Amino acid sequence: MFRVSAISVVYILILSHAPANPEKKKALMYNHTRRKKKDPDVSLSLSPTTASASIKMASPSRMLTLTPSRAKNILLLLSFLVIVFLLLYNPRLHAPSTLFLRIDVSPPTRRRHLLFVIASSYASWPRRKPYIRFWWESNSTRALAFLDRPVPHDPALPQVVVSDDTSRFPYTFPGGLRSAIRVARVVKEAVDRNEPDVRWFVFGDDDTVFFVDNLVGVLSKYNHEKWFYVGSNSESYEQNVKHSFSMAFGGGGFAISSSLARVLAEVLDSCLMRYSHLYGSDLRVYSCLAELGVGLTHEPGFHQVDMRGNLFGMLSAHPLSPLLSLHHLDAVDPIFPNMNKTQALERFVNAVLVDPARILQQTVCYDSLNSLSISIAWGYAIQVLEGNELLPNLLMLQKTFSPWKRGARVQHNYMFNTRDYHRDPCQRPVVFFLESVESGKKSSWSNYTGHVVGNCVKAKAIKSLEQIRVFSQKLEFDIEQMKAPRRSCCDILPSYNESMVIHIRQCGPVERISMH
Questions:
Q1: Distance between terminal CA atoms of the chain?
Q2: Cα angle 253, 268, 298; round to 5
Q3: Which of 44, 59, 303, 369 has CA 20 to 30 A from 140's CA?
């Protein structure tokens, strides 16, 4: 670090532009030395009169002509020195937020950065643990299952942790279950274990099926060093009214960034004391997060599944977002016909393993020659409809399911648009369910077989159609693309009889999904 007298710099610059005559340079150096001895406190703040007098007093033989070129160079040098001074001596410019851009050198979020925290019980664990086996992998997925009592160790399942005693916390909701306190407190108990290298804590129930790779991709959009509470509402309007539209429902699962989870763990016990009047565990967690000033970040791929019966209408028109979870699978029918629940989930998960980002993503294409509309829910089912069915209609969910709450007075109000599901099977689309998936390095073939219901008269183009094959490139998790997602397009290869071939591809810049 050093300081330079502005006058000295000016003299140095003048000397550098002076004539090459050694005698003139020597005279200039001599004058400058004499001036410093006579007036050591030389200041740049000379009045115009003084400056003019000084110039007049100078001998013509010793005065250096100040040309415009030299004046320009002097001003440039002075400007440079001012900038250097500001950078070195102005402390406000040393703040990284104003001078330097923050460079994130941390590696991308991977499976190992997620810690799944599963709420279970001694009573439910034996019948629910098969759901966990569908998504948990011992060599790549980190998970803890919190129970109220110990159970025998099973190496094919996550580590079981017995929850702490919560009898000191009050619970006053009429007819509710005290276990809600224990389940809520697993947030604190999981954080207090100080598991290494955790970026996200993901909470769910023992009957929640997570889609781990999709969770990793979606959570990569968010900075785990910031405070994030990521989840989704219930599908049921009434359930959201009863609990909260701002709450992530715990059965569908929710994620809390590690930075927020550590703070939440410090204050959770005091919240449990204040919110004894609430019903469930997820509402207690939400209430405490609300006190910290944190709101819910909605991700529609979390599914509470507050519905019963046939999920075909929901699964065949999934939102334009990666599938993250499914809950309440005990309360719904097998998702594939002529199978039990375990067999159906195995087939579905096999498709997930081939192309997790594409699973259930809805793609619509049209056969204008035969006047057919085709809706593909990749990895699950394809619907073939006669005529020109406009895209917005196909994006609405068919009401194949029933409300979560039973009773004559229960209203059928959902958090999404629905359309009727014809009671007459012959008025419904022809459905082709997933049969198998063939995986390549960067692409796949998925095969779908027709599901015949009743003896219906159909158009000639689809009367003999028995199988549909779909070719597609595997979807990569692109953070920028997920921030601004766009539906894929598809083409139907001509000349089909018993077998149709469809190619799913990226849409063109101005391409529309329509028949005409």
A1: 73
A2: 30
A3: 303
Helix (H, G, I), strand (E, B) or coil at 323: coil
Per-residue pLDDT 10s for the chain (516 aa) are: 444 444 444 444 444 444 444 444 444 444 444 444 444 443 433 344 443 433 344 444 444 566 767 777 777 777 777 676 666 655 444 444 433 333 455 789 999 999 999 999 999 999 999 999 999 999 999 999 999 999 999 999 999 999 999 999 999 999 999 999 999 999 999 999 999 999 999 999 999 999 999 999 999 999 999 999 999 999 999 999 999 999 999 999 999 999 999 999 999 999 999 999 999 999 999 999 999 999 999 999 999 999 999 999 999 999 999 999 999 999 999 999 999 999 999 999 999 999 999 999 999 999 999 999 999 999 999 999 999 999 999 999 999 999 988 876 667 789 999 999 999 988 999 999 999 999 999 999 999 999 988 788 787 788 889 999 999 999 988 888 888 999 999 999 987 888 999 999 999 999 999 988
Whether residue 122 lies inside any domain: the answer is yes
Query: Containing domain of residue 456, as a range?
Result: 355-505
3-state helix, strand, coil in the chain (%, to 5): 35, 20, 45
Distances, alpha carbon 417 to alpha carbons 198, 309, 327, 376, 399, in Å? 38, 18, 21, 19, 10
DSSP-derived 3-state class of residue 186: helix
CA distances from 78 to 31, 32, 44, 68 (A): 22, 19, 12, 15
Same domain, 115 and 95: no
C-beta of residue 494 within 8 angstroms of C-beta of residue 461: no
Q: Of 99, 121, 140, which closes a domain?
A: 99
pTM value is: 0.79
264: nearest Cα among 250, 247, 244, 284 = 284
